[in-house]
Each structure stands twice: as structure tokens, then as C-alpha cells.
Amino acid sequence: MFETFFGFAIPGIPFGCTYAVIAVGLVLTYQATGVFNFAFPAQAYAASLVFTALIQSAHLPSWLAFIIAAVIMSPLLGLAFDRLLFSKIPNTNTTAKLVTGISLLVGLPSLLLVAFPSNYYNPPSLIWDINTVYLTFWEIPINGAQISSVVVTVLMLGALVGLLRFTNIGLQMRGAVESRRLVQLDGVNAGGVVAVAWMVSSFLAGMSGILFSPNFGEIQSQNYALLFVFALAAAACGSFRSLPKTAIAAVLIGIGQFLFQGYLPTTGFLFTTVLPSFPFLVLAGALLLMPGLRNLDSSADPLSSVDPPLPPTAAASRLPQMDRMIKIAWYTVLGVFVVSMLTWIPKDWESVLNQGLAFSALFLSITLITGMGGQLSLAQATLAGVGAFTAAQLALHLGLNFLIGGLIGAVVAAMVAVVLAVLSLRLRGLGLALMTLAAALLFDTAIFSNQTLAGGSGGLNIQAKWLGLDLNNPNGHLYFIVAFLVVLLITGMILFIRKGTTGRVLGALKGSETGAAGIGINLTKERIMIFALSGAVAGIGGVLLVIQENVANPQSFNYAFGLIFIVIVVTTGVSTVEGAIQGGFGFVVIQKLLGYAPARFADLTFVFFAFGALTYAAHPEGILEFQKRRSYQRIERFFPSAMKKSEENELAIGIAGGVSDD
Amino acid sequence: MTDPAVTLRLKDVSKTFGIVNVVDSISFDVKAGESVGLVGPNGAGKTTLFNCVCGQLQNDHGAVYFEDQPLNGMPTYRRARLGIGRTYQRTEVFPDMTVRNHLLVAERVHSGTGRLWKDLLNMSKPTKEEIEVSDRVMDLVGLMELADTPVAALGLGHCRLVELARALAGEPTLLLADEPSSGLDERETAAMSAVLRTVQRERGTAILLVEHDLEMVSEVVDRVVVMDLGSKVAEGTFDEVMANPAVRYAYLGESA
Ligand SMILES: Nc1ncnc2c1ncn2[C@@H]1O[C@H](COP(=O)(O)OP(=O)(O)OP(=O)(O)O)[C@@H](O)[C@H]1O
Ligand SMILES: [Mg+2]
């Protein structure tokens, strides 16, 4: 009885310890610096990759590799993040901080894959060997990796307590944990405190990565992302505030995970579906129930109004003549594009651009929810998948036409989005991002990986008879025409919504929720509505994508794409429809072009966009949008006389509408 | 207690943060079309009381009635739609939107005629009446020249005017103004006083004004309520209240 219990529980402790290291590092940076470090798993990955590479490829002794990877590189990486990126973002700009972290999470592993193209297997254990059993408790063998996890965690947390309690900088850091602003007002060198916090927590990231890597046969960045989610769940249980509560929750989560695994029958729904979803359920549950998560972002900060306002988007600051010229240019580009697609563009490029159209539709859902609604959702890829798999299932089982099924899929995606919106009504900024991330991961493990629902790892092939139309014929242009019309329709819809009451109401909501409620806007209703709209558009995008790819593959919709999509759209411009469309085409075109380069550079697409998104803090309108504004201003300076402002024109153009409208 | 002449009635309203009674059993009325000043030193609980009236905070005890209707538990947006307009001590404008759009969105929400399907059919353009109303309000507060400027480009003084105009665009029966003069220079303050007076006299809007500038208070209000440390210490005309020793003590720290 007891033996079984401990037999299940004890192996959970080392895991829980590793989660604790990560979770404590997360909470420490978050409290001391205001940044929730989404790059944490990337840092853990970087450290373990470098550690292993130094030992296996450069044949360094492991102590030296450890010093280089964990003691030197990890803190320096954290310091660089802080000095080069996060310290430049105003503390109140939650979205910029999130986007920057997510860009690093996406970009860093991809960059490392380019730098270290070979695969690394059997990462070495730190201190004690994973394959040796050193102890037995109640006949439970304890291997070296497990011992080192526990020992190193206890040592590190002990050292952290010592640092916080007995050193001057620790005292200041603790002060920052209590009240960041107070420390700053106290005249403490806040920058110094922040830098130390970053270095300490990055060291913890590196340590956790190195400690944990022997548990995997190969070093892959996905493994660290899973680790991160466990830590997130623990941090949420500590309300992203209390270090001891976080550490305890982490260990309990580790134990709980193994207990469930042990006691549940190894077949059936609970084991195959609920168990792998355990950390996401804990995370979602904590976000739902823990007090104090409403004010996670600092929107209630009394000094937030001091921050400079965002620059207006390029279109808003243009002269009317400029508007007309741009409108004409857009129509020309559109016309040339359509004619070219129907005539001379080679088949392989036509299919790439078709895929670009599908991504454009999907990315327009981000324009809706993030650009117009001001909410950062990391589950857009998931919603697209919901649309696609709904259509596929309807076709498979009911023989429903795939396009009609696609519309139903869009409705289902909208409903899922509404559920998500309702569950996260009290959350803003970071809380919402984490809730949507938990949802994405939940769908990945519980639904998209389900053989019956999503066809397993190969996905569900789209059968030609489902479509009714000859969409998949590589010699025809029907797919292009349909997808083009769909994107045009969605674009028009968004432009009208933005011009109309809803657009203004959303602008109000984004500007100030307090002010919006004060004039009678029902925040809950508007929020649910924008989630529903965005979910529907994402669902349609997903349907277009799987038709184009001829297969509904769950891999195309996993949580990582949810992150990547955000990074892409933020780079090209999240506040305009052109931004989403340029993002859609940019994504596929760059990937295609990189296809001509050696295979190791394939991941550079993500690196490009990730680095693009790093400029989000400086140019929240998107770098493309920023460059556009600059060039318009140059043109306007160049032709000053032609650009006199005329009221009539403005009206005429205001009514005309079109792709590049306000 | 039914009294059509009472716009706002506070009965024993209390709000506690932790163990501090920030608002402690406050009761007073604002009659229809009346202008009442709410004054008191920093931290007296004036803004907190406003938040209880608007619904951003729910009071722990007591009751708030608006035109005889109990407001307890009602969310902010519904109170706003009933006719409570407000401005904020820390401005809550919509930075990306132009001045005119602030008013248009407030009007549209007030009339409740916005619909998503109308947007999709391009039927949501501002109507002639809406433009006229916004013109009139902007004219009143003196923002006409800035109508098409994004608010992000405006200074604090203009932002306070935008908030006031936005509140007025919803045609409130009761206007709560939280330190409208803070951050304004003397001339702007005088203009603000004039606007508030016009609003009260010409539109018949009841006003509850929190203000540190006593000159402005004396110009605008009919009656004053004084708060200190969460409690009401006096109520009466401006001169009566200023003569009250308890007020002088609370407000100026002079011994009675
Ligand atoms: N959300 C809150 N949590 C805890 N305490 C609060 C909160 N809001 C206000 N307080 C406290 O309540 C007290 C009253 O604040 P309030 O803002 O209502 O005062 P005020 O009369 O408006 O002052 P001022 O003239 O400075 O605007 C202050 O001591 C303040 O610190
Ligand atoms: Mg106040």
C-alpha cells in the first residue's frame, strides 16, 4: 500500500524539483523586472545544447563545459536580453514584453539549429550518471540524474534564499518583488537590480536545462517547452508572486503527475488523454481560480499614463493625395497579381502563393483579435485546426461537402473561441496569453493527437470527392480563385467592421477599458464578440490551408505555430489588414526561397520573423508599417506642392474604401 | 423615500480596503440639476466614492440610488447607460482615436443603435444628427479645432476636455467630474468652470464635482460636501462649510 504509493510518488520528486527551478526563476524575473520570460525554455535548451556539444563534439571535460554553458553563457544571455531588449520596453507595455519574449522563444532555438546542425543524443548527466542506480527507497531504484536533480535544486534554492536574505542586492531584489516601483522611487539602482535578477534567473534556466536533458534521448527544443509548461502551472499556483508557494507547487505537480500515471489504468480516456493534459489543466485551473491574477499586467499602474503613446499607423498620418496614390497602387498590384497567377506564374510558385493566401486568411484573425481587439491570443493556430478538422470529420463521416463543412468548422472554431473568452474574462495581457497557450496545448494533446479525431501523426487526407469542385487540380486555377475571393471577403469584412461602430468600440476598449465601460460599453460582450469573429476567421484560414496542403495535418496547427503566427504578424504589422496579408505571403515566400539554400538554413524563416518581431517594442505598428510611413513621409517631403490637403478629396477617399483603408 | 427631484442618493455607503475604511458610511443627495462639490484632503476617499457610484468598485455596505433605482451590483456600463457620465482623475482617453470619434462612439453606445450586421453592410457611418451633437459638444468645450486630431497628440488639459466632452456626448443626467482642473493652467481652469456651469444651467445636468481648486468649487457648485479620512465632516453652502471649524481643521490642518 505505502510501497506502491511511494513507488509512484518518489520518481516524481526529481521532476518536481526541476520544475521548481524553472518556476522560481520565472517568478523571480517576473517580480523583480516585470517581464514574464517566455524565452526561458529556449535558454534551457541553449544551455543543454551547448553543454552537450562541448562535451561530445569539442571533447571538453564536463566541468569545463558546465562552466562555459551554465556559469558563463547562461547569465550573459540573460544580461543581453535585458540590456538589449527588455530594458528598452516601458514596463506598462505588456504586449511588447510578451511579444519580445515569444520572439526569443521562437527565434533562439531556430538560430541554434542553424549554428549546431548535427543531432545530439544521450546528453551527459551532470555529476551522477543516469544509468547507475545509487540508492533504493522501498525497493525503488534511484538513478544518478534523479539524485542530482534533487541535490542541485536544493542547493540552488538554498543559495537563492541566501542571496535574497543576506546580501544587499538580494535585499533590493526582495524589495522589488514587494513593489518594483517603490524600489525605483527609493533611488536604488533599479537597472542594476534588474540586470542581476535576469542573470540569476537565466543561470537557473541553464541549470534546469542541463539537469533535465539526460531524461531525453535527444536534445530537442520541444522537450524544454513541455518542461516550461509544468513550471508555468507551478508559477500560476503561486500567483506569479510567491517564491516558496511556487517551489512547493512545482514539487507537488511533479509528484501528482507520477501518482496519476501510476494509479490510472493504462488504457482508456483518462490515461491517454487526461494524463498528458495534466499540466495544462493545472495551468488553466490556476489561471481560472487563483486570486490576484486579474492585475497580472500593470495596467493599473498609476504611472502608466506617463508612457509615450504609440505612433499612429502609417495610414492615419497620410495626406489624402497620398492615400489616393496608394489606393491606385494597391489595385494595380492586386490586378497584376491575379492576372499573373492565372497566366504565367509557374505551378510550384502558384501553389506557394496559394498557401500564402490561406495563411493570409488565418493571419487576418490575428488582425482582428490582437490588432483591433488588443488581446494577445496564442491559440489562433489551434482555432484554425478546429475549423479544419471539423470540416474533415463532417466530410469523412457524413459525406458533407468540405466547403460547407468548412463554414460549420468556422462556426465551431468561433464557439471554441467564445468558450475561451468566457473562461478568461477576468484575465488580461499575460494571463490571457497563458490561458490561450494552455488551451492550445490542451488541444494538441487531447484532440489533435487523437487517432480518431485528427487521423494521428499523418493527419487526414483531403479526398477529392469531398470538395465537389476541382480545387486540387494542379493544372487548374480554381483553388486560387476561391481562396482569393475568400481572402477578399474577409478583408472587406474587417475593413467595414473597423470603419463601423464595432471598430470604434474596439478602439475605445483598447485605449482604456475603464473609460470604455464609463461610456456604457459592455466589455464582456465586445470581448466575446471579437473572440468569436477572430475564431471564425481562423477556422476559415485553417480550412483553406488544409485544402491547399491536401491533408489536414495536426502538426500544422500545434501550439508552436500559434506562437510563430503571432511573431510573423507582429513583424509585418498587426494593426492593418495589409500587415496580415504581407505576413501570409512573406512566410511562404521566404520558406520557399530558403528551400534553395542548404537544408540547415530551413529554420531561418522563423529567425527572420523572430528578429523582426524583436523590433515590436520600438515599432509596435510593425516594421513594414514603420518603413512605409517613413517612405510616405519622404515622398510627401519630395513633392510638397502636389500634396496640399483638400477636404473634398478626403471625403471622397473616406467613402471609397479599399485594401489600404485607414 | 421616493423623490423625483433626487438624482443621486447615497445611503451609508462604505468601502473597505483591507482594514482601512476608505469610505465610511457616507450619505448625501444630489438633486436633479443641482451642482454639488465634494472636497477633502488627499486620500479622503473621494475617488473611491466616485468608483462606488460608477460601479468600478462595489460598496461593501449601504446603497447607491440613481433616480430612485438601487444600483448595487449593477455593472459600470449599465450605470453609464442609465445616465451617469464621468471624467477621471487619471485620464482614461482612447489614445488612437480622434477627438470626434470619442464623441461619436459615446453617442452610438448611448443610443444603442450599433450592430455588427450594420457594420458589415457599411451602414454604420455617423448620422447627421450624431455629427451635429458632436459638433455642439465640441463647440461647448472648445475642442472644435482639434476634432480630427488623435488624442495621443494632445496634452493633459485637452485630454480632460475630451473626457468631459465624451461624457457629455452620452447626455448624462448626472456628471461626475474628478479633479477636472488638475494639470490645467489658470486660464484653462476658468474655461473648465465656465463649461461646467453652462452644462448645469443649460442642459440641466446634475454635477458632482471633486476639486482641490476651491475657487473653482465656489464658482461652480451650489452646495459642498466635505470628506476627511472617509467620513463626511460637513455639508452646506460653500461659505457655510468654509466657516466650519471641523472643515478648517480637516482641510487646512489648522487647529479649531
Ligand atoms: N484599490 C485600492 N486598494 C487599496 N487602497 C486603496 C485603493 N484605492 C484607493 N486606496 C486608498 O484609499 C484612500 C483613498 O483614496 P482616494 O483615491 O479615494 O482618495 P481621494 O480623496 O480621491 O484623494 P486625492 O485627492 O488624492 O485624489 C487612499 O489612502 C488610497 O491609498
Ligand atoms: Mg482622487
Automatic annotation (TrEMBL), chain A:
InterPro entries: ABC_transp_permease (IPR001851), BCAA_transport_permease (IPR052157), LivM-like (IPR043428). CDD domains: TM_PBP1_LivH_like (cd06582), TM_PBP1_LivM_like (cd06581). Keywords: Amino-acid transport, Cell membrane, Membrane, Transmembrane, Transmembrane helix, Transport. GO terms for cellular component: plasma membrane. Pfam families: BPD_transp_2. It is found in: Cell membrane. Coiled coil: none annotated. The chain crosses the membrane at residues 6-28, 35-57, 63-86, 98-116, 145-166, 187-212, 224-240, 247-264, 270-290, 328-346, 352-371, 402-423, 430-448, 477-497, 528-547, 559-589, 601-619. One of its GO terms (molecular function) is branched-chain amino acid transmembrane transporter activity. It is a multi-pass membrane protein. GO terms for biological process: amino acid transport. Belongs to the binding-protein-dependent transport system permease family. LivHM subfamily. This is Unannotated protein. It comes from freshwater metagenome.
TrEMBL record, chain B:
Residues 8-254 form the ABC transporter domain. GO terms for molecular function: ATP binding; ATP hydrolysis activity; L-isoleucine transmembrane transporter activity; L-phenylalanine transmembrane transporter activity; L-valine transmembrane transporter activity. GO terms for cellular component: plasma membrane. PROSITE patterns: ABC_TRANSPORTER_2 (PS50893). Keywords: ATP-binding, Nucleotide-binding, Transport. One of its GO terms (biological process) is L-valine import across plasma membrane. InterPro entries: AAA+_ATPase (IPR003593), ABC_AA/LPS_Transport (IPR051120), ABC_transporter-like_ATP-bd (IPR003439), BCA_ABC_TP_C (IPR032823), P-loop_NTPase (IPR027417). Pfam families: ABC_tran, BCA_ABC_TP_C. This is Unannotated protein. It comes from freshwater metagenome.
